[in-house]
Amino acid sequence: MELEWKYTAFDKLGVVELYAIMQLRNEVFVVEQNCVFQDADDKDFNSYHLTGWDSDQLVAYCRILPPGFSYPDASIGRVVTSPLYRKTGNGRLLMLKAIVKTLSQFTCSKITISAQFYLSDFYESLGFTVFGDTYLEDNIPHIEMHYTV
């Protein structure tokens, strides 16, 4: 399956795209992970949004934040794939594209993420390294990770 990839600044997202993004984030981060938290955290406004589409179905998504918004470095967050499309390699493809976009968008050599701890091996397989100890974020164990060129 070949996805259609879009990379969009917040103010250029259409309402249907934005609705699909918020719906997928809520489906996974709030309902599936049973985590009550404020997803709309004002960081979306300054972020770029990378989406992978199968026709009109949002399959994969992440947001890319400039330096100074979540960390001193550029960062990637809200990484999610639709439960209907898991185990297809789309999460890996999403992150590979996100790394390239982040490095080129912000002309940087380092990316910081807050990874759910159970996914740290996945992120390490993409070149990220663990930095520090695990911590709770919205009652879910996380670990800070860095990607350095």
* Strand residues, percent: 35-45%
Count of helical regions: 3
Give the integer mean of the pLDDT values.
95
Reading off the top of the CATH hierarchy, the class is best stated as Alpha Beta
Question: Helical percent range?
Answer: 25-40%
Biggest sheet: strand arrangement: 1-2-3-4-5-7-6
- The backbone outline, from C-alpha atoms, is globular
Distance between the termini: 30 Å
What would the CATH topology be? Aminopeptidase
Low-pLDDT residue intervals, each spanning 5 or more residues: none
CATH superfamily caption: Gcn5-related N-acetyltransferase (GNAT)
- Report the strand count: 7
Number of domains: 1
CATH architecture: 3-Layer(aba) Sandwich
Instruction: Find the structural class using helix and strand composition.
Output: alpha+beta
Topology as H/E string? EHEEEHEHEE
Mind telling me the C-alpha Rg?
14 Å
For the report, how would you describe the main beta sheet?
A: 7 strands, mixed
